[in-house]
Each structure stands twice: as structure tokens, then as C-alpha cells.
Design brief:
Radius of gyration: 23 Å
Largest sheet: 2 strands, antiparallel
Order of helices and strands: HHHHHHHHHHHHEHHHEHHH
Strand content: under 5%
Number of domains: 1
Shape: globular
Structural class: mainly alpha
């Protein structure tokens, strides 16, 4: 994940002047916000102008704060801070997904395959991507998702960490895991609106299933957990109130460009995955099945909240950063489980574990996919990044002579 940024200064040692690789969507915006925190303004009321520093934020700031202070902790400049974040957060996301899938499947090789596929091969879920990558080419305009700071680099960690600890809370019935889950849930308000809204949709669906099963004790425990998340989010909600009361609120909302509509959204991926889940997902563990059922009901809720609100909340973000990753995880689990199940039932190749072979193929294909995407994006970005190095003397002059702010 971090290799393109790490490699570029060595690949162009004679021409590289320290100008950062900014080729992913919203890259410069996130960098400006991280630098704003480094400059002493973690409130992120206005990361662009010297005015409005104390205004309420319109975009949750915790992801930028975490990355900025991570760099300050090790006395790193902005470039090195982002490089460290790419190593660290990708590693932690991998561990969170690995832990979650391992608790579901109890198979280490399945967990490794799912985590590797999610980090490196998620674009294969897109239409036509499989044929394109088979030819050894890729869309050259983007790197892998986790290459981009701040989202989904940080939000993915909070999302999968919550699912991991919430499952431990349900399985072990220990409140220490419930408290950790509530803490992550509450902090997710300060990370990304798509994270906390999806998680609350998931918890809502889970509660509906518990009501249907009349499991009142479990319902009470989950309601307490969700209220704990809301309690942690009180400062965020107060900030929302301050934003609405701000004189500039109307102008800001126009720039966000929410679409007024009550049209339902289903798409192809979410209903297809749900049908595959109902037919092929293992049903031996009732608790696990209910958990996953609620997790796959949540996309229907977040994709169609505009039926009530009348405002389309840019639903593509749910699709890219939540629905596609969940599809990768569930497809890997289902394919490897069904392979082992039918091999045992039909008594095929008794001395060969077909599930492990298939898992190794998934890992290999994921590595190949990740390399192709990163290499194609690097090649397409190379000339642009070299061109940007011409701005280095100007940047250095401003850093040396310009008054702060």
C-alpha cells in the first residue's frame, strides 16, 4: 500500500524535490486538513482561510487528528507522516478483518484470504474489472482505496474494529468488549458519517431480529451499548446544532449538493449478495447467522433512507467503502466453506484440502491485483508528480518567509 510513495523519491532521486504524490480523489483536501491540525487548529473550522478557525466543523476531524498527532509523536514531516499512516492503518485494518473472519470461520487460511482480498482485490467486485485485470491493466486514475488518507484509511479501521469487538461482546458476553464497542461506536461520529450511520443501521436491524425472537435481555444489552455510543457523540451533536445555527450554514449546504429525491435504490450488488448469503452461508451457528443477517440488512436501510428524509446522502460512499468490502468478505467465506463442504460430502481428493488450495489462489490473485493497480496508477501519475516538483522553490520560500496563517 505504501510502496508507490516510498519508491518515488528513489526512482527520481535527481528530480524529486519533496512535493507529495497527490493523485487520489480528495487527496489535497485531506492533506490540507492534516496540516491544519499540525499547525495547531484541530477544530478544523476552516482549514483553508485564516478566518473562521473557531467555526463548527462540517466534516468530522478525528481521522485527521489521529494521523497528524501520529506524525508529531515521531517528529515526522507531512510526507513521512502519510507514509507511516499507510503502513500502520493498512496493517491494523488487515488485523481487524482477519480477527473478524477468523471468529466467524475458525479457519486461519480463510481469514488471511478474506483480509488480503479486501485490502488488495476489492476492485474485482466492480463490473468488468476481472477481465481488465486479467489483461494486466487497470484504471490508471486511482490507487487502492486504503492508499488514500484519511478516508477510508481510518474509517475502515473503526468499522471493522467495531464489528470485531461487538461480535466478541455477543459471543463472550463480557461487558469489557461491550464498553470497547460503545467507545468505537461513539468515536465513529467524529470519523466519518457513513461509518456511524451504517453501524447504527446494522444495530437497528439486529434489534429488530431480537424483537422478533423475543430475546429481551439481549435487546436491553444492545440498547445500552447504542446509548453509550450516543453519549460519547454528544459533543458531535452539539457541533451539528452549532453548524445549523451558523449564518454560513445555507451556503455550506449548497456546496454539499444533496439530491432531493424519494426514489428507492437497490442496485445489483446488495440484493445479489443477500440472496447468495441466504442460500449458501453456513447456518450451524444461530448467533453468527443472525449477526451476519443484520449486517447484510443494513445496506438496504442506508441506501434507502431518502424514502423518509427526501435527501440522497451520496450513497456511493456506502457502496465503495462498506458494501463492496462486505461482499468480498462474505464471498470468500461462502466459497471456501462450500468447497470444503462438498469435498467432504462427495469424498473427493481425500488427501488434498481443496479449500486451502483455493484460499492460496485467492491470496495469490489478490497480490497480483494489488500490484497491477498500484503499478498502473503509479505509471499514470508519474509525469504529473514530476511536473509538480517545479513548485518546490515556491513552497520552500513560503515556508521560510511567509507569516503563519
Amino acid at each position: 500500500m505504501a510502496f508507490p510513495q516510498f519508491y518515488f523519491p528513489y526512482d527520481h532521486a535527481d528530480t524529486y524535490k519533496g512535493i507529495y504524490i497527490t493523485m487520489t480523489d480528495n487527496d489535497t483536501g485531506y492533506l490540507a486538513r492534516i496540516q491544519e491540525v499540525r499547525d495547531g487548529h484541530p477544530g478544523l473550522g476552516n482549514p483553508i482561510s485564516k478566518y473562521g478557525k473557531e467555526d463548527p466543523y462540517t466534516q468530522s476531524p478525528l481521522g485527521e487528528i489521529i494521523i497528524a498527532y501520529l506524525g508529531k509523536m515521531f517528529f515526522l514531516d507531512l510526507n513521512s507522516t502519510i507514509l507511516l499512516a499507510r503502513f500502520l492503518f493498512t496493517f491494523l485494518v488487515f488485523l481487524a478483518v482477519y480477527g473478524l473472519v477468523f471468529l466467524f470461520s475458525r479457519q486461519k487460511i480463510t481469514a488471511v484470504a478474506a483480509a488480503t482480498a479486501l485490502c488488495l482485490a476489492k476492485p474485482l467486485i466492480s463490473r468488468g474489472a476481472l477481465i481488465t485485470l486479467w489483461k494486466g491493466i487497470s484504471d490508471p486514475t486511482i490507487f487502492l482505496d486504503l492508499y488514500r488518507p484519511v478516508q477510508p484509511m481510518v474509517s475502515s479501521l473503526f468499522f471493522f474494529s467495531f464489528l470485531l469487538f461487538f461480535w466478541l461482546f455477543l459471543e463472550k458476553r463480557r461487558w469489557v468488549f461491550g464498553i470497547i464497542s460503545a467507545l468505537i461506536l461513539g468515536l465513529s461520529f467524529y470519523i466519518y458519517p457513513y461509518t456511524w450511520s451504517f453501524l447504527y443501521a446494522f444495530l437497528g436491524a439486529f434489534c429488530l431480529v431480537l424483537i422478533f425472537q423475543r430475546r429481551w435481555f439481549d435487546l436491553k444489552r444492545i440498547i445500552l451499548l447504542t446509548l453509550g455510543g450516543v453519549f460519547i457523540a454528544i459533543p458531535y451533536l452539539l457541533n451539528v446544532y452549532r453548524s445549523i445555527s451558523n449564518p454560513n450554514f445555507i451556503d455550506v449546504t449548497r456546496r454539499f449538493g444533496l439530491i432531493e429525491t424519494h426514489q428507492p435504490i437497490l442496485g445489483f450488488l446488495v440484493p445479489s449478495l443477500f440472496i447468495i448469503f441466504l442460500i449458501f452461508f453456513p447456518k450451524k451457528s444461530r448467533e453468527r447467522f443472525i449477526f451476519c443477517l443484520a449486517l447484510l440488512l443494513a445496506p438496504f436501510i442506508v441506501l434507502n433512507q431518502q424514502l423518509i428524509t427526501g435527501k440522497d446522502f451520496h450513497s456511493g460512499h456506502y457502496h465503495w467503502f462498506y458494501h463492496q468490502p462486505l461482499a468480498v468478505i462474505f464471498l470468500v467465506i461462502i466459497v471456501l466453506y462450500q468447497t470444503g463442504f462438498w469435498q467432504g460430502k462427495l469424498r473427493l481428493f481425500k488427501n488434498i484440502n481443496l479449500s486451502k488450495i483455493l484460499a492460496c489462489l485467492i491470496i495469490g490473485a489478490s497480490l497480483y491485483t494489488g500490484i497491477v493497480i498500484q503499478a498502473a496508477s503509479y505509471k499514470a501519475s508519474e509525469s504529473r508528480i514530476l511536473y509538480d516538483q517545479r513548485y518546490s522553490p515556491i513552497v520552500q520560500w513560503f515556508n521560510a518567509h511567509a507569516q503563519k496563517e
